[in-house]
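Whiteboard transcription, Tuesday session. T.W. wrote the structure tokens on the left side:
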């Protein structure tokens, strides 16, 4: 079974090459040993409270929704003394019809510094361009918008928004970031992450969304919205150039 190297209080982010069934996600020790297990449409965000012990393997099993074979992805979470896999791309390989478990190809981005961005191909000679977002109404639905930015490289783009949950409000967690083009079409968002989830009353948190590979022209303006996970406190952030 393939291994993914994790560490205590360090987020590991898995990206699948097909849609997954969120309700099917099985993580050994999920209730007691993880700060967060957050499945998305094609993603799984994991943050352990403590690292697996030496020689210990915590199993993870995820079912795909498209009915293709293999139907499941399975791998083990392990610890390593010096390396953490912060981003893992899970690629389904063709198998015989009777084989239902996935033999995955794991493309890792290890937490060893910015050199891995270049080695993984995530950062090329085109570099990264950053633009500040133009924020709308600063206080909405008990939340305060502090700042926002857009980042674009050759093969990826990010939108980051820092928000403050005002005192006396309920805890808040992002469920969706919507990025809309001028003609009304939505940009596909591949992942949504937070530096803390939920954001407690009086606390500040950062929300970061990664988009599909940019196909739009440079400096196109997008409308940004944040929708609360399982709630109604939605924020119209403003606009950003990507």
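and on the right, the sequence the group agreed on:
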């Amino acid at each position: 079974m393939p291994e993914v190297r994790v560490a205590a209080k360090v987020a590991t982010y898995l990206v699948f090459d097909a849609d997954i069934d969120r309700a099917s996600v099985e993580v050994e020790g999920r209730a007691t040993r993880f700060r967060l297990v957050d499945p998305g449409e094609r993603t799984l965000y994991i943050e352990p409270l403590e690292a697996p012990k030496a020689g210990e393997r915590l199993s993870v099993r995820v079912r795909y929704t498209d009915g293709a074979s293999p139907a499941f992805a399975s791998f083990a979470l392990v610890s390593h003394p010096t390396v953490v896999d912060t981003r893992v791309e899970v690629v389904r390989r063709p198998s015989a019809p009777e084989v239902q478990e996935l033999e995955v190809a794991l493309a890792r981005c290890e937490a060893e510094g910015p050199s891995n961005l270049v080695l993984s191909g995530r950062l090329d000679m085109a570099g990264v361009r950053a633009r500040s977002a133009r924020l709308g109404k600063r206080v909405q639905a008990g939340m305060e918008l502090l700042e926002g930015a857009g980042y674009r490289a050759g093969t990826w783009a990010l939108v980051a928004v820092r928000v403050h949950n005002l005192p006396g409000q309920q805890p808040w967690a992002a469920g969706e970031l919507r990025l809309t083009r001028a003609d009304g079409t939505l940009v596909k968002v591949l992942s949504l992450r937070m530096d803390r989830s939920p954001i407690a009353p009086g606390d500040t948190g950062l929300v970061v969304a990664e988009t599909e590979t940019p196909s739009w022209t440079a400096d196109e303006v997008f409308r940004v919205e944040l929708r609360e996970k399982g709630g109604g406190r939605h924020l119209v952030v403003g606009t950003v150039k990507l």
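Someone added at the bottom: The CA atoms of residues 106 and 138 lie 41 Å apart.
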